[in-house]
Write a structure and sequence with these properties.
Elements lengths: L4 E9 L6 H14 L4 E10 L6 E8 L2 E8 L5 E9 L5 H7 L5 E10 L5 E2 L3 E3 L6
Antiparallel strand pairs: 1-5, 1-6, 2-3, 3-4, 4-5, 6-7, 6-8
């Protein structure tokens, strides 16, 4: 029976990914980590518009999609990431996958859209478990 889980992440990071190649690699590894299958992409592009400067990526997975944008103009850099899937995945594995960017603060929420929209608590980590 399909589930409908939507993980929404907002993170402030010290070492943002800034290259398209590196973000494609990060997305492929994330898909592998959460045991999903890629059906399209990953696709990435660097955005040069002032105020929105940074890198965007998306990958289509067999059960839906993953999207991310990393604003790199300010320090700490801002990361916004969404994962939507009709298959179960562990949110903790996704949060740990952000470790490469050295998060200072992570906020996330899981939305269950199976029968109606219901939100779990917003979790805020301000003390990074990453070295």
């Amino acid at each position: 029976m399909p589930v409908h889980k939507h993980l929404i992440i907002r993170a402030e990071v010290k070492h943002p990914i800034t290259s398209e190649w590196e973000l494609r690699k990060w997305l492929k590894n994330l898909v592998k980590t959460i045991d999903m299958k890629i059906v399209g992409g990953p696709y990435t592009a660097y955005v040069t518009k002032e105020g929105n400067r940074g890198i965007t990526g998306v990958v289509m997975i067999e059960t839906s999609h993953i999207s991310i944008h990393i604003w790199d103009e300010e320090r700490p850099s801002l990361v916004q990431c969404d994962i939507y899937s009709c298959a179960e995945f562990q949110q903790g594995e996704v949060i740990m996958h952000l470790g490469i960017m050295k998060p200072k603060k992570i906020e996330y929420m899981m939305v269950d859209r199976s029968e109606e929209i219901s939100c779990g608590p917003i979790i805020i980590h301000t003390k990074s478990p990453y070295p």
